[in-house]
Specification:
One of its GO terms (cellular component) is plasma membrane. It is a lipid-anchor. Its main location: membrane. This protein is an alpha/beta fold. It has a single domain, classed as RlpA-like domain (Barwin-like endoglucanases). The chain has a six-stranded mixed beta barrel.
Amino acid sequence: MKSLLAACSLLFLLAGCASHVIDPRGYDKTGVASYYGAKHHGKRTASGEPFNQHGMTAAHRELPFGTRVKVTNLNNDKSVVVRINDRGPHTRGRLIDLSRAAAQQLGMIRSGTAKVRVQAIRD
């Protein structure tokens, strides 16, 4: 009986950890953004394409590859549209990792992070 209970508990735990792909329609969240640049430039992203720090791309944990999102820096109201092509951020408490070019347009290079609003946009 104990082994059955343990197996069921493990099954529920693993199911709760599974990654759920969310529907990008209506996605609208606020959180902390960071960026990555030269250290990763040219390396393969999770989507298979090379990372370009000069491109308008981003990493997100759940949004489907190819999803375009509008990211607004809530400290200065600057916005940029990026395409999700990687998985991350890998730091707890972060919502999105931006390319260096996108971070520069948002005015967050010096601080390294910024409170942002991320909204999925329709093509």
